[in-house]
Fold:
Amino acid sequence: MLPPTDSMTGEKDRMRATPDQPSPRAVGGAHLITRDTNLRIDSFNAASGVTLTIVVRSIGFDGTPIVDIFNHAPNTDRSIKTDTYLLSDGWLLSCQVYASSGSPRRGQCFVRVQLIQGLTGATLSLATLVQGYVQDTTALAYPGSAIEPSTAGRGVIRSITGTNPAAGAEISETVPTNARWRLLAIRAIFNADPTVATRAFTMQLDDGSSIYFQSGANVTATASQSPVVQWAAGGGGAASSGTVPVSHIAQRHYLMGGHRIRTTTNNLQAGDDWGAPQYLVEEWIED
Amino acid sequence: MPKVCGVCGGVYEPLQAGMKYFHACAPVVDTITVSRAGTLMTVTADKVLTTDTEVLRTYKERPNKVDENVPTTKG
Structure:
């Protein structure tokens, strides 16, 4: 039998560490938390009434089990909300984030939890523990959860009632800041005034100024008519008697914050009146 | 409770299904290109005749437009 080398002896020494003197090997995979290591959470949220709870389990340098619990109230306008928390010194074993109040759905509340060096001012990001969407029924956990970007997977499905324009004005809906939409369908009722003229409708998508898509509706209106005008992904074709025609938009129209969904109506009269549009989108946080 | 935009007159619900709605005023018509007696011409909205056939509308931002969206932190 070969005599033990220094390194082998050291290995044996570490393996003999007692529970009250945990060694790096005993807590393999853990993150070292020193006096200058702190926890930072960044959230981007669109749902109201959400409170996030962050639970950190660690073991102190003296072997004491530690549980640190923090609460974080995200903003509700998708803007970033950042909180930094002091952690107990030791070895971080696990971290979990869940919605302790509110009912955010996937696509509404995106969080990133990281270890940082420092507390205020210039800090250094040391490690990302969890990153992804939190729901009231689904937590993010380290270790375990994937580090995912905000636009991965499915978003939340929203049915939105837009602005009811004043008479003589067009429909115009703007994608909120820090949101990404996939437009699935939009529907509105147009009320023509008694002026004799044929109104024709086009829905257009723009980036806030430049138009990148237009789709004409396969329905028109003359004096005092009130047609339903709608566009849907994959739609298109004339209506048969007694049904409502559907006009076409592409299956995957992704719109960034500031992009607009608008109508333009040929021969629009001052007394013509669009009703409030109802539209269906899939939404993600776009941080 | 619906809100009425004091600039464009649009009506909207500020909160829908637990999420905020951010109103932004629609642009207004700038010029309209029409076919009048077989001739194309570009006029302002108040100069369009009911006998004209519209060809194209251009829009401009509404003066003093309201945009309730939070400012983006990216360029």
Summary: Confidence is low (pLDDT under 50) at residues 1-19 of chain A. The CA atoms of residues 194 and 223 of chain A lie 5 Å apart.
